[in-house]
């Protein structure tokens, strides 16, 4: 049991810091209020002058899948076939990636990580806690959190190897075909079971049925405006949930994205415009989308930019028009909402997991550092 006293706590509603105390009891936040008094066995932390946020949440990462400091040996993000929905990131994740420990130095306590964008349909992503375990299963919050699909330049690279897809139209066709195959597979399975016939299970189609049934969203890698529109068009055709990951041209078609109802996971915005479809990359994107009514999370796309830099990116978006409250929401409660884990993570609320970061300065100050980081009430980092 522990009470953090005298700090300024970020509350997403009304979106301000308030000087309050917070009590952690076991794995949960037990109480938030003024002048909380502790019992004899409770640890009291005087955090006067400090700021407290929920643990930061990364909505789109490759941590543990594309490991730090090595090359092909730690690269598990892409298969050599364009459509592999049967692949599961949980089976490729390496908890010993040093990036997990480094992420704690930036207050990042939860990540959605998974396959890259080399294929049209790559497999399912996984949401993990940054809890220091070397057992993958003990890190997992959601084992199949979304089906990674990609549009644009990356999947078209198969064309240079003499394979489909070679064009954007081919990318769209292959995703449509995969979704339609899942619709047909489901109907055939239901009919076979109704008749009592043997039915051969296809693991890829089983995963895609979860997509068409709305259990898991498509995580749509899309940078350019036409690719964003194609992702929306196909997902609407099949009535499936989706997130628009990267959404680089989002500020150019913000109203269209808002009308779709799909959230955007924006970034990585820091760094060079390394390919043509990034030519409109801008730190303006998040503010324009938020102002249009889109729910936005910010991504490092680790290891494109380091996982621990998540708060720095939010600060850069704030510099370009995003409000302080929305910048913080983009790395806390918004990704929790988008990932479907808001019942446990992303806010300082009694009953949620005790994922708490004590910062020495305002977390959007580029000089700010976490003094202590807790995951489910357990101290995982101390400066």
UniProtKB/TrEMBL annotation:
The keyword Hydrolase applies. Coiled coil: none annotated. GO terms for molecular function: hydrolase activity, acting on carbon-nitrogen (but not peptide) bonds. The keyword Hydrolase applies. Signal peptide: none annotated. Residues 51-378 form the Amidohydrolase-related domain. Its cofactor is Zn(2+). This is Amidohydrolase.
């Amino acid at each position: 049991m522990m009470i953090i006293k005298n700090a300024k706590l970020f509350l997403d509603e009304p979106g301000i810091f308030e000087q309050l105390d917070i009590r952690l009891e076991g794995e949960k936040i037990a109480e938030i209020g003024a002048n909380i008094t502790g019992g004899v066995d409770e640890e009291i932390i005087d955090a006067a002058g400090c700021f407290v946020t929920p643990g930061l949440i990364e909505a789109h990462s490759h941590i543990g899948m594309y490991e730090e400091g090595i090359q092909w040996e730690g690269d598990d993000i892409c298969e050599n076939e364009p459509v592999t929905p049967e692949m599961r990131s949980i089976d490729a994740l390496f908890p010993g990636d040093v990036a997990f420990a480094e992420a704690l130095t930036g207050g990042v306590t939860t990540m959605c990580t998974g396959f890259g964008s080399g294929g049209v349909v790559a497999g399912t992503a996984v949401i993990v806690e940054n809890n220091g375990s070397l057992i993958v299963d003990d890190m997992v919050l959601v084992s199949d959190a979304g089906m990674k699909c990609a549009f644009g330049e990356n999947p078209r690279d198969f064309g240079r190897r003499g394979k489909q897809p070679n064009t954007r139209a081919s990318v769209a066709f292959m995703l449509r075909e995969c979704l339609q195959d899942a619709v047909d597979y489901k109907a055939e399975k239901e009919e076979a079971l109704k008749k009592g016939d043997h039915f051969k299970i296809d693991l890829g189609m089983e995963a895609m049925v979860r997509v068409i049934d709305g259990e898991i969203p498509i995580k749509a890698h899309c940078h350019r405006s036409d690719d964003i529109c194609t992702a929306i068009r196909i997902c609407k055709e099949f009535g499936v949930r989706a997130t628009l990951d990267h959404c680089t041209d989002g500020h150019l078609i913000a109203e269209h994205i808002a009308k779709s109802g799909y959230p955007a996971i924006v970034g990585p915005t820091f760094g060079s415009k390394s390919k043509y479809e990034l030519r409109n990359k801008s730190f303006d994107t998040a503010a324009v989308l938020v102002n249009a009514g889109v729910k936005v999370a910010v991504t490092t796309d680790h290891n494109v930019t380091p996982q621990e830099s998540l708060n720095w990116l939010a600060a850069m978006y704030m510099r370009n028009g995003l409000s302080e409250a929305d910048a913080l929401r983009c790395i806390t409660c918004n990704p929790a909402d988008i990932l479907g884990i808001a019942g446990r993570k992303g806010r300082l609320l009694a009953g949620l997991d005790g994922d708490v970061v004590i910062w020495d300065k305002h977390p959007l100050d580029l000089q700010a550092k976490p003094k202590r980081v807790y995951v489910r009430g357990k101290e995982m980092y101390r400066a």
